[in-house]
Amino acid sequence: MDFPLRVLQPFLGARIVKTGLAVFLTLVLLHRLGSSYATFGAVAAVLAVQPAISKARETFRQQLLGNAVAGLVATLLGMWLPVTPLTMALGAILALGLLVRFRLTEAAGLAVVVVLFVMDRPEHDFLLYTLERMGIIVVGMAVGFVVNRLIRPPDVLGRARAEIASGERAVDQFMERLLLSLGAPQEYQKEQIKRDAARAQEHLAAARAALDLGESDVPPAQAAVLRQANSSLFVFVEAIMDVHKLVLEAGGLPHGPERELLTAVLRSLQRYRASVLGQALHGAAADPDAARSFHSALAAFGQRVERLVDLRDRRDFGLQLHLVLAEIRHMGWRVDSLARLCGQG
């Protein structure tokens, strides 16, 4: 039993389960009511299931109005003109045109189904036949909407926060390995760097996907903060890779003031970022000393780099460290921006 469950698990997302349940309930209900066209109601139920509650509400509203428009068009054409493939195509065109005119584009697919469903009619009791078929569509839509409402949607905010927190831990490990390799950067192999970067980016990409999925249900202010936090960590991953490359090109940093200052500024940056992310993810109070400590360490490292650039015999080394300084400033700017955004909210 374990094997098929492990195989099927990736395919059993919440929306897939909700869609299957909506189809099942619609078919059972319509069969119990004696309908011979339950399949069309199941199609409407599928279209009514959406990943977010607000999206489902808007889709249900548009489909309800679109169903009425399409049914009206099909009824009028069916009563005035003989039903032929040309007439049915004309009905689909008119229904779609009206939906676009009234900005009901979410209902376009169902509208065509309704037009074809209604116009494929018997030769007697056309109006009653039309109302019955439209009722079947409405039942399917209602079942899909109710299922969407009753089954709890995924906690988008919780999932995004968890993935960002996991990404932050991966970035911390990445930074620690960079710090350990400053003296001998060649020992930090390229393949390991790629794996460490990919591990962090995987969590950050999952967080971004969660925010995209629940965009309409997440308060804009919270979404902006989480997106900024996620984006900042993406920048950290790229910057760590670049710093390692620059230190490698410089031949490594032996024990001395440059290595001590670089280590100090990177560790203070970690502390500053952790403080701001704690505020962004959990609403914790930011540590003002963390920001001051980072900017002080950054200024000290910048002064040392400028002195090296001014020395003729160490200018090339100083210029290489100047590029490292630019990467650190970039990371710091992103954390500053996130801190300001958290302060506003």
Automatic annotation (TrEMBL):
Protein name: Flippase GtrA
Regions crossing the membrane: 12-30, 36-53, 65-83, 89-119, 126-147
Keywords: Cell membrane, Membrane, Transmembrane, Transmembrane helix
Location in or out of the cell: Cell membrane
Membrane topology: Multi-pass membrane protein
Key word Methyltransferase present: no
Organism: Symbiobacterium terraclitae
